[in-house]
## 1
Amino acid sequence: MKNTLKKGYQFRRILRTGNAFRGTSFRAVYRLNSLGIMRLGFSLSAKSGNAVKRNLIRRRLRHLSREKGMNTGADVVIMPEGKLVINNWEHLRKDFMELLVSIKETRKSRQKNSYKIK
């Protein structure tokens, strides 16, 4: 199974029912899944930069997801904030780590709430 989101219905479901995250270099909407892996989808328009810049950002975020977020268990749609700058590797890394923390906190709160007696 690939770790990407490609179908329109997957994007729509995440954008409609997911939790939002806003960083300095990108915005993200995520939804927990039961697969145990992180699946990424990108929504990058031509306004955000040329193809070289857009693909560079995609490659960098995929690398971070393989390196740090493999067992996160979430579907994530990433949208850039304004123009893409190639030299913002540290901002991307910082924002991605904050995104992982946000996902883990959401998972913990869901597990905590599922154990409460109603």
## 2
Amino acid sequence: MSDEMVISQTKLFVGWLNRQMRGYDLRQEFSPFGEIVFAKVNLDRETNRSKGFWFVEFADAEGASKAQKEMDWKEVRGRTIKVDFAKEDPTKVYRRPEGEQAPIATAPSAQPSNDETNDEIPADETVVDENVF
């Protein structure tokens, strides 16, 4: 990891989340603040269970700033969450070729039933490779 980290203007780190939440749940919580490019769960590679923290990236800095101010220390599904701007290693930041648009993650077509209790990601859940970001 680089000694010099860059603070993102559009990507938020969301910690202390309820581990049952998925990308579409997080999208619902954060979408009132602006257009979301992606909402990503971080999984333990061995167990495929949520690590309890997420990243949400907005299309613009204004939406991210509003969300950070409004959602930091808010209770979401029985847990008080921590929201801050993500710190990124500039040597690992993915750069799209000039003119290429960022992919927009979409919500899954069907949400799981209320009795779903495992932490496995549904087949239609959008997951972004954390090594890219």
